Amino acid sequence: MEEYDRQDALFYDYYSTGVPGDVEFYVAEAVKAGSPVLEIACGTGRILIPVAEAGVEVVGLDRSPSMLAVAREKVARLSPATQKRVQLVHGDMRGFDLGRKFTLAMIPYRAFLHLLTVDDQRRALRCIREHLVDGGKLVLNNFDPRLETIVAHRASLGSALKLDSEFVHPETGRRVLVWDTREYDVAEQIIRQYFVFEELDGDGHVVAKRFNPLVLRYLFRYEMQHLLELAGFRVEALYGDFDRSPFRPGGEQVWVASRA
Question: Of 42, 70, 94, 188, which is least surrounded by CB within 10 A?
Answer without folding.
Answer: 188
